[in-house]
Design brief:
CATH topology of the largest domain: High-Potential Iron-Sulfur Protein, Chain A
Number of strands: 2
Helix content: 25-40%
Distance between the termini: 48 Å
Number of domains: 2
Shape: elongated
Order of helices and strands: HEE
Strand content: under 5%
Strand order of the largest sheet: 1-2
CATH class of the largest domain: Few Secondary Structures
CATH superfamily of the largest domain: High potential iron-sulphur protein
Largest sheet: 2 strands, antiparallel
Structural class: mainly alpha
Number of helices: 1
Length: about 80
């Protein structure tokens, strides 16, 4: 019986890795929005700006919009951290 338990664990580990890989590949394959689609602007909108957004990738990137962004920029995908 211990052999079966080990086999089950090995199978679950392989399946879990395959699912994680598939989800990661799917997320990476999603195209990013253009600046026009995101209504990007180089100035903040009130207190909202790229530098305080959860989607900001320092020093000048964004997880959901293509191209460089300003730390003080803003777009309609803005997501303030909790």
């Amino acid at each position: 019986m211990p052999e079966r338990r080990g086999s089950r664990r090995a199978l679950l580990a392989v399946l879990g890795g395959a699912v994680t890989s598939a989800l990661g590949a799917r997320a990476a394959a999603q195209p990013k929005m253009t600046k026009a689609q995101a209504q990007y602007q180089d100035e903040p909108k009130g207190i909202m700006m790229c530098g305080t957004c959860t989607l900001f990738l320092p020093p000048a990137g964004c997880k959901v919009m293509e191209g460089d962004v300003a730390v003080t920029g803003w777009c309609n995908a803005f997501d303030l951290a909790d």
